Amino acid sequence: MTAALSARGLHKRFGSLRVAQDITFELPPGARHALIGPNGAGKTTLINLLTGTLRPDAGQVMLDGKVITLLPPEQRVKQGLARTFQINALFPALDPLEAVTLVVCERLGVATNWWRPVPAFHAAVEEAHGILASLGLDAVCHRPTHLLAYGQQRLLELALALATRPRVLLLDEPAAGVPRSDAGALFAALEALSADLTVLFIEHDMDIVFRFATRVIVMLGGRILVAGSPAEIAVDTAVREVYLGSRRHG
Amino acid sequence: MIAPAVGVIFDGLAYGMLLFLLAVGLSVTLGLMNFVNLAHGAFAMFGGYVAATLMNTLGWPFLTTLPVAFLLTAVVSVAFERALYRRLYRATELDQVLLTIGLVFMSVAATAYIYGTQQQPVRLPAFLRGYTAIDGVNLSHYRLFLIVVALVVTLVLVVALERTRFGAQVRASVDNQRMARGLGINVELVFAATFALGSGLAGLGGALSIEIIGLDPNFAFTYLIYVLIVVAVGGLGSIRGSLLAAVLLGVSDAAGKYYVPTLGSFLIYLVMISLLLWRPAGLFGRRAA
Amino acid sequence: MSHTRAIDALRHLAARQRWRPVEVAFWVATLLPFVLAPAYLTLASQIAITAIFAVSLDLIVGYAGLVSLGHATFFGLGAYTAGLLAKAGWGEPLSGLLLAASVAGCFGWLTGFIVVRVRHLALIMITLGIGLLLYEVANRESWLTGGNDGLQGVVIWKLLGRFDFDLYGTTAYTYALAMLLLVVLMARRLIHSPFGLSLRAIRENERRMSPIGISSRAQLHRIYTIAAAIAGIAGGLLAQTTQFVDLSTLGFQRSADLLVMLALGGTGRLYGGVLGAIVFMIARDRLADVNPQYWYFWIGLLLVCVVLFVPNGILGGLARLKPRDTQ
Questions:
Q1: Is the CB of residue C325 less than 8 Å from the CB of residue A95?
Q2: Are strands A5-14 and A58-63 parallel, antiparallel or unpaired?
Q3: B88 contacts C301? CB cut-off 8 A
Q4: pLDDT band with cut points at 50, 70 and 90 for residue A245
Q5: Are C270 and C17 in contact (CB under 8 A)?
Q6: CB pairs under 8 A between B and C
Q7: pLDDT tens for residues C226-244?
Q8: What is the rounded distance in angstroms from the CA atom of residue A129 to the CA atom of residue A234?
Q9: I need a surface site. Which of A184, B44, C33, C214 has the fewest CB within 10 A?
């Protein structure tokens, strides 16, 4: 069975700082994998390497078995690889409906159309509305993004990625900064993600990791330290040293 | 064949040094405060007119007008910074461009009103007039003086930046403002002081320009463009970059005028565009402007 | 339930691009000069031309968020193209305008490759530099452009074969106004289209574009080309209605003045450029009469005040007074 997303021997350095060293892993289709590690371990860097925001010094990235290492980020999105950002990267003055409609329009190939008004693209607007409704944002879909509550913005961040109809989804700390009281909607959304969708998510909150992940990858100092099921990782001595005590990083 | 080339390089070097004095303040404050101050040329012009007025109306000797031009421009610039500029530190680039262009319009018109549109005369002391001939090359005393002044200023700036505590604070604030604040550095004071220094240098440059490139109310616009080229090409916040870019620009301009006079400024703009495409942050710039 | 909401959403979006009464009133008002101020039709036609120019810059600055200091480049190219064509013997206005737009658009497309690669100071300097370059070339090649004296012998034929460009400016104003209407209609469609939406998104957060699959560079290149062509139309109109072209069409002053107009009217609001052009040109006409040398002082002061107190221009200030219609 071909892995939905895989990396082989990824290396990246900035000067003398090695942010990724020999990263190799595979995500089978439908996976729910978590990527954990202390700050500076290189988790977001890895996501950037996978999405094409950063170019690796060596190594390959493969999507459904196809090598995409040299594809620019926009092209990878078209091939089905989407991501969200740890700190909301949204469009403050646009409202959620406009933002998600734009993503759908691009997917449908009509984002360069300058002659017909947006509402003329019924299917796109309806689909966008549907996505927002599934995340509980349809009530605020006309409010400018900068006026939304933080938890709602986080959901919009997810909506933008989902609108690209990805096959593989990379989530960078989806629950970051969301107060517990608002986290319910986010968790419901994560649980409702299609079983066909392959998900890799970075998380610090171990409750979320245990709740959603079937497998955990632990990074440290740019390397993959160990990988295994959540239960295995919880008792792994190396991991405990990293998080609880004596082991030095990098 | 050598003599004219050396002469061209010498003239270009002097012109470049002058541009450096005019531009270094803008480079540092842009790199430090990220504030697009297009009125920088107007501050230079102010310094020039201060010197001219002192010389022509009050009969002061040329050399004494220089420090006054520096100080007065520094003081006036801080007044503008406190009263106007600091309100727009968080504003969009476009707004900063518009505000400072508005100030330029006002300064050009006001200067034309007060002084008229003719060139300002300058009276140099005897030892700065004339030239010395070495190996068939005429080295103008004034241009030598310019080069020396600029080198001294560069030395003082570099030493101040690298060796003094204030310099360290400036470097820290340029690198990471939030962190610097967190360390207890009074970033507002650093801004104001650096801005004063930079504008003061521009004023000094303006005073020194009168002999070489003349001084009239359009100075604020005309030399704004050259200053911007130096800053963009040299890289924001870099003294080295400004120096290199200024010298490059000065020598190219002099060489162009001597060897290919019909090309005019054509070459300069082409070189600038190419350099910026290759390095959008400038030769020594750290981040994109 | 969701289905009903979707229809509401569509209706809500559609409502945004409906013609407002104020817009209709504006266009009716543009007919007034024919009746109320026939002596000023020449000025009115120049205002209309400048408004077209301002709308084209707003597409780049206000909608896409690129600060350009060299937009006059395309205006001047359009002007010289139309002028030279007429001087060479072909004075038909509409085809001349088409050529002007094409030449300007072409140059916009070519320079667009470099312009969309940079931002901030580098962008300002490169657009400025391209403008200054073209100015130098035009100055040098005075055999072609007439240099400082300008292009002489520009003769324009009758519009549509029937209407002569008379001294009163009736034809000129009709022509310019019709073009302004066309340009605004086109800009309107563009702004409310998916392409326009993508431009606003780029302005809001360029970084977010490639993760949603859109190449911001490609979109920016497109709008830069379109805006260049429109500026070329404005320049061509100037050449045809005044039957004269000189270096000032390419100058930095023209680019700077245009930015001032956008600041006055408000960027990113379609009619901001139009309003700014009207205010600026009328102010210049009145003040320059009074004090030709120092009127720039007052413009400078106005600009400073607008930036400090009414940062989104007149239209922005008015928008803040209206109650918001979000839910």
A1: no
A2: antiparallel
A3: no
A4: low
A5: no
A6: 133
A7: 999 999 999 999 999 999 9
A8: 40
A9: A184
CA-to-CA distance for B169 and B181, rounded, in angstroms?
A: 10
For residue C28, the distance in angstroms to the closest alpha carbon of chain B comes to 32
pLDDT tens for residues C125-139? 899 999 999 998 898
CA distance B230 to B234: 6
- Owning domain of residue C313: 38-321
Cβ-contact C159, C165 below 8 angstroms: yes
CB neighbours (10 Å) of residue C205?
A: 18
Residue B140 DSSP class? E
Q: Which of C292, C289, C266 is CA-nearest to residue C279?
A: C266
Under an 8 A CB cutoff, do C9 and A110 touch?
no
Instruction: Assess A31–C contact: CB distance below 8 Å, yes or no.
Output: no
Burial class (CB in 10 A: 0-12, 13-18, 19+), C1: exposed
**pTM to 2 decimals?**
0.89
Residue the block writes with tokens 């490639």: C210
Pairing of strands B137-140, A81-83: unpaired
* Å between C168 CA and nearest CA of chain A: 37
CB contact under 8 A, C307 and B88: yes
CA angle A170, A172, A177 (to 5 degrees): 145
C307–chain B Cβ distance below 8 A for any pair: yes
> Is the residue at C226 inside a domain?
yes
CATH at residue C108: 1.10.3470
- Rounded to the nearest angstrom, the minimum Cα separation between A149 and chain C is 15
Q: Would C191 be classed as within a structural domain?
A: yes
Among C133, C140, C296, select the one facing B109 at the smallest CB separation: C296
CA nearest to C14 within chain A: A119
- From C214's Cα to the closest Cα of chain A, the distance in A is 6
Separation in Å, CA B57 to CA B44, B107, B125: 20, 21, 17
> What's the CA gap between A154 and A177, in Å, rounded?
9
Partner-chain contact A125 C210, CB within 8 Å: no
Kindly list the residues from chain A whose CB atom is less than 8 angstroms away from the CB atom of residue C326: 95, 142-144, 147
Report pLDDT digits (tens) over A34-51.
Answer: 999 888 888 999 999 999
Owner of token pair 């520094």: B74
Residue C19 lies in a domain: no
B84, B109, B280 member nearest C294 (Cβ): B109
Domains parsed from chain A with CATH numbers = 5-244 (3.40.50.300)
ipTM: 0.89
In chain B, what residues touch C120 (CB-CB under 8 Å)?
A: 93, 288-289
Contacts of B266 in chain C (CB under 8 A): 133, 136-137, 140
- Tally of structural domains, chain C: 1
Place of tokens 């009145």: C286
Q: Give SS3 for C324.
A: coil
C15-30 burial, b at 16+ Cβ within 10 Å, e below that, comes to: eebeeeeeeeeeeeeb
Quick check: C132 and B269 CB within 8 A?
A: yes
Domains with residue ranges and CATH for chain B: 2-278 (1.10.3470)
The closest of B72, B33, B38, B58 to B204, measured between CA atoms, is B72
Q: What is the DSSP letter of A19?
A: E
End-to-end CA distance of chain A: 34
Amino acid at B119: Q
Query: By the CB < 8 Å criterion, does C147 face chain B?
Result: no
Residues in chain C with CB shorter than 8 Å from the CB of A77 are 210-213
CA C28/CA C25 separation, integer angstroms: 5
C186 domain-assigned: yes
In contact, B184 and B172? CB cutoff 8 Å: no
- Is the CB of B276 less than 8 angstroms away from the CB of C119? no
